[in-house]
From TrEMBL:
Lineage per the UniProt record: Bacteria, Bacillati, Bacillota, Limnochordia, Limnochordales
Signal peptide range: 1-29
Record-given protein name: PKD domain-containing protein
Domain LTD: 26-160
Organism of provenance: Limnochorda pilosa
The keyword DNA repair belongs to this UniProt entry's keyword annotation: no
């Protein structure tokens, strides 16, 4: 326990660094948990104006796991620059419990302010200065004679004291603040881990705070236990040595640690044995594939840590199988399958799929990429590169890839003949002109607009009634890719009519077409049965066609029923009256 007299010279930078490290990182501090009774609190403002308590007091703390007898011991006080004397000591008796406190009552101040102290373990009459002074704990009732007195157990110099431990004295006290030793690991007093932090540096070990007197009757406050830490988990091939590292374990009090390793669980058939099970670093050979559960417990001689556990896994690398390359039509849903992936030990695998390359402009995304069989839509023609990463429980991974090619969809096109003068007696011949950029076409689907369909490549069709029909074709390639529908309209005129004008369909529901064959321009007039004109249109010299959407000039749909129409030619003359039926 080194002491310094009048240690107020500038301190070297290394000491400042040490102090910062001590408080910021207790595990690495060059400090220790005390191994003998220490002075844990000093209060010299008792009974003064604004005092917290009526009496001065000195509190001791036992940082060991066994009771300590105080018979024949004493606490002594000296002024900041004074010497210890027989008139300023209090003899002690009894014992201090393991990790417990011991309260020595001092003199009362003249103002009488403050609350009474808890019933002290020893009552004395020491009158302590509030802001500066020296307090010593000795193994005898003889005054401390010097800094090297063999009976000296602990000393606290505070405020302007000329004698103190370390580089500087503890802070100044006051009528409302005592000097309190830090708790385990340099924590603030009152943390519940005992006031046994002793770096032999009064300026670092003590803080000024509101007084908290404790007696031997209060519950013990053991130091914080050490903490066992095992290094990163291990994954090794079977038959490989596993090196264990517990050197990251630490003790809040900075004390040396004892280590105890053990194998809690091993795979069936394993005869693994730990080497150096009491050293910071141990090892064993993972002689069987599987999981080895390792446990480490550390002790600082006072308390034992909670067990730390870690798994070491002996495993071979898994095998990833992303499946065969696929050829699909653009727009198809691609189903992936990684179920043939496997782990040599039979352990379960986790899956992670990703789209590595996409055609330019593609917005394809994987649905549920962590499934064994996710899917995506090949929204554009081109190549999609897909990657599968499988991971076993040991964290070992394997990768496989496949390529999906999306072929462009076919483009449907067709023509028909004759293109005009089609009547119900006409045989209409349809010719397929569809094409595919990559794949052969294998199927065609025609819809003729009158409810009839065909699967021939070049069908022939007759219409049963006059009217306007929309013909639709879809072509399919050998991958099942279907072209978008292609449509063309054709007009079937009534058969055997010599009239200048005909129409179709009849009856009409949504629209009707008028077919004019006159050689000069004309006017079409449509009347309802009451003689009211409901529609009028100019007709170009024939052959020409005019479509009517069955609405009036104001855009209102005409009512269902019978309508009459005529064509008046520019040069004179009119057609016979024709009938048109509208149904809704």
């Amino acid at each position: 326990m080194p002491f310094s007299c009048c240690a107020r010279s500038p301190r070297p930078a290394a000491v400042l660094l040490f102090a910062a490290t001590l408080l910021a990182n207790p595990a690495s501090a060059q400090a220790r948990w005390a191994r003998t009774v220490v002075i844990s609190e000093v209060y010299g403002g008792g009974g003064n104006r604004g005092a917290t308590y009526t009496h001065d007091f000195i509190e001791l703390y036992n940082p060991t796991a066994e009771p300590v007898s105080l018979e024949g011991w004493s606490v002594q006080y000296a002024a900041a620059s004074g010497a210890f004397s027989a008139t300023k000591l209090t003899s002690l008796e009894g014992s201090i419990p393991a990790f417990g406190s011991f309260l020595i009552e001092g003199a009362a101040g003249s103002a009488g302010d403050g609350a009474p102290l808890p019933s002290a373990d020893v009552e004395g009459s020491l009158s302590l200065a509030a802001d500066s002074g020296q307090v010593a704990l000795a193994r005898s009732a003889e005054p401390v004679t010097g800094l090297d007195d063999p009976n000296l157990v602990d000393l606290v110099g505070y405020g302007a004291a000329s004698v103190f431990e370390g580089e500087e004295p503890a802070p100044r006290g006051s009528n409302a603040r005592s000097l309190q030793r830090r708790a385990d690991g340099g924590a603030e007093p009152g943390s519940g881990t005992g006031s046994g932090w002793d770096t032999d540096q009064n300026g670092q070990d003590f803080v000024a705070a509101s007084p908290t007197p404790r007696t031997r009757r209060d519950p013990p406050e053991p130091p914080a236990p050490p903490v066992a830490v095992i290094g990163a988990p291990h994954v090794v091939p079977p038959g490989t040595q596993v090196d264990l590292d517990g050197s990251g374990s630490w003790d809040p009090g900075g004390d040396p640690l004892a280590y105890r390793w053990r194998l809690v669980e091993v795979p069936a058939g394993s005869v693994a044995i730990l080497e150096d099970p009491t050293a910071p670093r141990a090892a064993f050979v993972a002689d069987r594939a599987g999981t080895y559960l390792v446990e480490l417990t550390v002790s600082d001689g006072l308390r034992e840590s909670a067990p730390a556990r870690a798994e070491a896994v002996a495993s071979e690398v898994p095998i990833a199988e992303a499946g065969e390359d696929q050829l699909v039509p653009a727009g198809a849903t691609v189903r992936l399958d990684g179920s043939k992936s496997r782990d040599p030990s039979g352990a379960r695998l986790s899956y992670r799929w990703s789209l590595v390359d996409l055609p330019q402009g593609s917005g394809a995304t994987l649905a549920e990429p962590e499934r064994v069989d996710p899917a995506f839509t090949a929204d554009l023609p081109g190549d999609y590169r897909v990657r599968l990463v499988v991971t076993n429980r040991a964290g070992l991974t394997a990768t496989d890839e496949l390529q999906v090619h999306a072929a462009p969809l076919p483009e449907a096109s067709f023509s028909f003949e004759p293109a005009e003068a089609i009547t119900p007696e006409t045989e209409v011949r349809f010719s397929d002109g569809s094409r595919s950029a990559e794949r052969p076409l294998v199927a065609w689907h025609w819809r003729f607009g009158d409810g009839a369909e065909s699967r021939a490549q070049n069908p022939v069709h007759r219409y049963a009634a006059a009217g306007r029909y929309v013909v639709e074709l879809q072509a399919t390639d050998d991958l099942g890719g279907e072209s978008p529908p292609t449509q063309l309209a054709l007009q079937v005129r009534p058969a055997g009519s010599g009239s200048l004008v005909t129409h179709g369909p009849n009856p009409a529901r949504e629209q009707v077409a008028f077919f004019y064959r006159g050689e000069e321009a004309a006017t079409l007039l449509v009347y309802d049965v009451s003689g009211r004109l409901v529609h009028q249109a100019q007709l170009d010299p024939g052959p020409s066609e005019h479509g009517w959407d069955l609405t009036t000039g104001g855009g209102r749909p005409v009512a269902p029923g019978l309508y009459l129409y005529v064509v008046v030619r520019v040069g004179g003359g009119r057609s016979p009256v024709e009938r048109l039926v509208v149904e809704r």
